[in-house]
């Protein structure tokens, strides 16, 4: 489970930052009529989000999460700043599970 946690944590942060950049790009596109940044950032964020989904599936299967919880973690990459909160909660949950397994 620990081996799946690190890629999840990295991708949660990267997707979170890219989502904030994407929000800025959308403001530039629709607020100021400048679509150049969003044409670059949107596909990058989309690709990284798909990799994030795979990381969540990998961690969720190893940690034996139920599907509603896993879907909630997946949605964490769709709301600005939420992925940072979700990453902290998931990390705490995994560390707690690992500590309980060792005891």
Automatic annotation (TrEMBL):
- Transmembrane intervals: 12-28, 40-61, 67-86
| Pfam families on file | DUF3817
Q: Does the keyword Cell membrane apply?
A: yes
List UniProt keywords, sorted A-Z: Cell membrane, Membrane, Transmembrane, Transmembrane helix
Cellular compartments annotated: Cell membrane
Q: What are the residue boundaries of the DUF3817 domain, all occurrences included?
A: 5-91
Q: Main localization of the protein?
A: membrane
Topological type in the membrane: Multi-pass membrane protein
Q: Where is the signal peptide?
A: none
- Database matches in PANTHER family: MEMBRANE PROTEIN, MEMBRANE PROTEIN-RELATED
Query: What is the recorded name of this protein?
Result: DUF3817 domain-containing protein
Q: Which organism is it from?
A: Nonomuraea marmarensis
